[in-house]
Design brief:
There is one protein chain. The chain has about 230 residues and is an alpha/beta fold. The chain has one domain: P-loop containing nucleotide triphosphate hydrolases (Rossmann fold). Helices cover about 50% and strands about 15% of the residues. The chain is built from nine helices and eight strands. The strands form two sheets. A five-stranded parallel sheet has the order 2-6-1-7-8. Strands 3-4-5 form a three-stranded antiparallel sheet, with no helix packed on it. Helix 7 packs across helix 8. The longest helix has 17 residues. The protein is globular and about 50 Å long. It binds cytidine-5'-monophosphate. The site of cytidine-5'-monophosphate has 14 residues, from helix 2, helix 4 and helix 8.
Length: about 230
């Protein structure tokens, strides 16, 4: 089995980008586990940053303070029990709400915040490999990745999936509000000037509207096998 990285960093990366609710997080996690590779949930970094800012009373448009916080954010990701801690406290569930997602997308429009988080994201590239999930993994953070996937699905289907996830977790959910939230977040993510949500030129685009998770995983797995000769 050979897996190609780049000349500068031989550790291979698979990037899985796409909008909220496209299934990328679940698919990326399953594939990382299957391969025994590391996993980067880059959205969690933006969510944690927004959460930490709100805790500290920093407005979500205070660019200088947010960029400073992004550089020093006392966050840890556990590889064994999926815990994410901020200041030593587990905040995994708090950052999963729609409110946290919306706050994340507000801080994510700030260029200095994005560049402050670059090094943190690239630090996840550790042997034997990395599966990176986000919006700009293939375009900005790991542009030389040998496998790039862009998962997408209709806004209605993505809202329906989010609704089911929230209800399963026992959280409050309202479908029309979710559709509106998703549309608003898509609009902000695709039109921002820095690292907008667009597929990389060399990404394989997979529409998951009609696919379940197992079918999506199979499609992406086949692509990985082809591209990495596994
Ligand atoms: O993927 P997730 O829903 O957790 O991301 C939350 C928000 O963080 C997104 O709506 C997006 O604005 C931002 N984000 C980003 N770049 C990434 C990952 C997430 O701008 N690589």
């Amino acid at each position: 089995m050979t897996a190609s990285g780049s000349a500068a960093n031989p550790v291979p990366v698979i990037t899985i980008d796409g909008p909220s609710g496209s299934g990328k997080g679940t698919v990326a996690q399953i594939l990382a586990t299957e391969l025994g590779w590391h996993f980067l949930d880059s959205g969690a970094l933006y969510r944690i940053l927004a959460f930490a800012a709100q805790q500290r009373g920093i407005p979500l448009d205070d660019q200088a303070k947010l960029a400073d916080l992004a550089l020093t954010l006392p966050v840890t990701f556990s590889t064994t029990d999926a815990k994410i801690t901020l200041d030593g406290v587990d905040i995994k569930d708090e950052i999963r709400t729609e409110t946290a997602g919306n706050a994340a997308s507000q801080v994510a429009v700030i260029p200095s915040v994005r560049s402050a988080l670059l090094a943190r994201q690239r630090a996840f590239r550790i042997a034997p490999g990395l599966v990176a999930d986000g919006r700009d993994m293939g375009t900005v953070v790991f542009p030389e990745a040998p496998v790039k996937v862009f998962l997408t699905a209709s806004a209605e289907e993505r809202a329906r999936r989010r609704y089911n996830q929230l209800i399963e977790k026992g959280l409050d959910a309202n479908l029309p509000t979710l559709v509106a939230d998703i549309a608003e977040r898509d609009q902000r993510d695709t039109t921002r000037t820095v690292a907008p949500l667009v597929p990389a030129m060399d990404a394989e685009i997979v529409d998951t509207s009609e696919l379940d998770i197992a079918q999506t995983v199979t499609r992406v797995r086949n692509l990985i096998r082809q591209r990495l000769s596994m």
